[in-house]
Design a protein that fits this description.
alpha/beta; Rossmann fold; 9 strands
């Protein structure tokens, strides 16, 4: 893989600081958004691969995540607020258009960006969207976390203190991502959970059906929180979409070569294409 430049930066949205990393350079912008409670660093391997393929990639810590500010006011957290943050970042970077993508929470935020500012979205790169088929599992998985953070904050503090004792230099990359995800502050954690569970999860179906930019949708088998049925449904709804089935939820994390290549080819294609024509959902070969 070619070496690419990497630069850490920051922007301010409504007085709140958001931290980001840029990989590579040029006008073929790609924005990658993390999962719920996870840091932007989770997309570092993919960002480097896409930058080596000639893209200018930005990974962003949304408000309440990673190294961005973490206020504990639940009114500040919503999918639409996250989408507004992404558009603000595009403005600050001078990016007229970008391929906007993400995983889980990031996938849904990408859809919100497309609904909010479709002219700014060159294409969508969506992994593990959380839609109708995932709602029950999300409530079961995330409600206890929200209640623990809100009503038993000492439990969150204890986990954070225990994680601080782990020497990061001996932890592999994805182990570090897990530790970063578990290292939370109870107030912001409860607030972000509130925004996820009680706000709008994603644009409604009739809005998704109107998003005519090209889209690559990746779904995982055997994942109750991000069922492949949601990804397949989204691929059917979006007028110009491609659906790719990963071999497992771990493939893009631990054996990323195939999906990295699919994503890089997709980005190259959409930046070569000057007009977006709806062609209906189609399934990419597994490779």
């Amino acid at each position: 893989m070619s070496l690419v430049s990497e630069r850490v930066g920051q922007v301010f949205v409504d007085g709140w600081r958001l931290e980001l990393t840029e990989y590579g350079a040029g006008d073929r912008w790609v924005v990658l958004l993390h999962g719920q409670l996870m840091p932007r660093r989770m997309h570092e391997p993919l960002a480097r691969a896409l930058a080596a393929a000639g893209n200018h990639v930005v990974t962003l810590d949304l408000l309440g995540h990673g190294r961005s500010d973490r206020p504990d006011d639940p009114l500040l957290y919503s999918m639409t607020a996250f989408a507004e943050q992404v558009v603000h970042v595009l403005d600050e970077l001078g990016a007229e258009q970008a391929v906007v993508g993400g995983t889980s929470l990031g996938a849904n935020v990408a859809l919100e960006v497309a609904a909010l500012a479709p002219s700014r979205v060159r294409a969508l790169l969506v992994e593990m969207p959380v839609l109708d088929n995932a709602l029950d599992a999300c409530l079961v998985a995330f409600s206890p976390l929200m209640f623990a953070a809100r009503y038993a904050p000492v439990s969150v503090h204890l986990v954070r203190r225990a994680i601080a004792l782990v020497p990061r230099r001996v932890v592999p990359f994805w182990g570090g991502i897990v530790l970063d995800t578990l290292s939370q502050q109870p107030g912001p954690m409860a607030a972000t959970m509130h925004g996820l569970l009680f706000g709008r999860i994603a644009p409604p179906a009739h809005v998704r059906e109107s998003l005519d930019m090209p889209a690559l949708v990746v779904g995982h088998p055997h994942d109750p929180i991000h069922p492949a049925a949601d990804a397949a449904m989204l691929a059917e709804e979006l007028p110009d979409s491609r659906f790719v089935a990963s071999r497992s939820i771990l493939e893009w994390r631990f054996s990323p070569e195939r999906l990295n290549a699919v994503a890089a080819d997709f980005c190259a294609e959409v930046w070569r294409t000057s007009t977006n024509g709806a062609s209906g959902a189609r399934r990419l070969s597994a490779g």
